[in-house]
Structure to design on (170 residues):
């Protein structure tokens, strides 16, 4: 008797690879984020006319980089909260919630509440970047309070997760 081979769910493992962390993409993201954070910090220190920019950069670059990722994760958690909340409400039959959830996922500009929710998520991340970086810059004795405040504020505004607003489709 011939043995039968059954292929249950063959497409699932291939399909899930699209969402699996891709090492080249992760490395590009890590190094790209590092380059942007370091450049913004350097330019902020240069605009503030800090004499020992190199010393400040040596003490702060990795903290600023790490803090940016942590803040982005906090902002993304806010977006996930909105999405999961929408999914829970949609299960109860609220039709506007479905539109909100789709807009949160694909294009926040398609629903006013999704746009506001995304803006709040980016703002939360930006505020976190400010406070995290201001704290990290306290370890740099070469900076006074005004320079710490200004550098952290520049980092928060420029490196906030503005990519949250980029639509997946138009």
């Amino acid at each position: 008797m011939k043995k039968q081979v059954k292929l249950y769910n063959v497409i699932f493992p291939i399909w899930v690879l699209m969402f699996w962390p891709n090492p080249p993409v992760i490395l590009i993201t890590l190094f790209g984020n590092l380059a942007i954070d370091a450049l913004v910090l350097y330019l902020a220190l240069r605009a503030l006319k800090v004499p020992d920019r190199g010393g400040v950069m040596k003490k702060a670059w990795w903290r600023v980089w790490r803090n940016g990722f942590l803040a982005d994760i906090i902002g993304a958690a806010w977006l996930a909260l909105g999405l999961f909340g929408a999914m829970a409400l949609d299960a109860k039959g609220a039709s506007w919630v479905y539109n909100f959830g789709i807009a949160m996922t694909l294009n926040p500009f398609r629903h006013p509440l999704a746009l506001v929710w995304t803006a709040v998520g980016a703002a939360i991340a930006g505020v976190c970047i400010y406070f995290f970086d201001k704290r990290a810059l306290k370890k740099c004795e070469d900076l006074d309070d005004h320079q710490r405040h200004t550098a952290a504020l520049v980092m928060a505004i420029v490196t906030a997760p503005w990519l949250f607003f980029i639509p997946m489709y138009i």
Summary: The CA atoms of residues 33 and 65 lie 7 Å apart. Residues 5-13 have pLDDT under 50 and may be disordered.
